[in-house]
Model the fold of this input.
Amino acid sequence: MNYHLFQLINAAAGRTDPVDDVMEWSALWLIYVLGGLAVVALLLRLRSHDRAAVVRVVVSLALAFVAGQLVALASTEVRPFQTHSVHQLIPHDPGGSLPSDHATAAFAVAFAIGVFLSWRWGVALSVLATMIGFARVWAGVHYPADIVAGAVIGAGSVLIVVLGGRVLARRADRHRPGAAVGGH
Done:
């Protein structure tokens, strides 16, 4: 299924040069646009002195990075161009394919900003993250499952930060002077 979906997407590559140009640019450079927009969103939040939200975004990205590296160590999936005849539009070294580092970072940032800063910014960045992932498949350097795995890792990292924040908040409430005994 993963390879068949890859074939459907990648088969369109190499047919229309202007479309390929957009996909190549998106596969290589759109991550920097997403990162720049994320920095703007973070700086705007810092102006309101909400450092906790910014820290949550950064921690989410760090967790996603670590989780992505662990999944990559456990994975034996190589890049599509290593085992199949593909339309490879951008240069890439051979190696592990699962998960996509681009997708992991893009979705972790998009979801974290959406949850901790602004759902509107999060939606916009999620659209860009989806475009990045699609372009990486179009360009022949990732399978669709690599992109989905990156999105799941990004979402999971944000969920861990949300749940961890709730646990810490409950502990802080219990230890606050004047808090009710028994916690209810």
User: Anything to note?
Assistant: Residues 103 and 150 are 5 Å apart (CA to CA). The helical segments are 2-10, 17-47, 51-74, 80-83, 101-116, 119-138, 144-174. Residues 51-174 form a domain with the Vanadium-containing Chloroperoxidase; domain 1 fold (CATH 1.20.144.10).
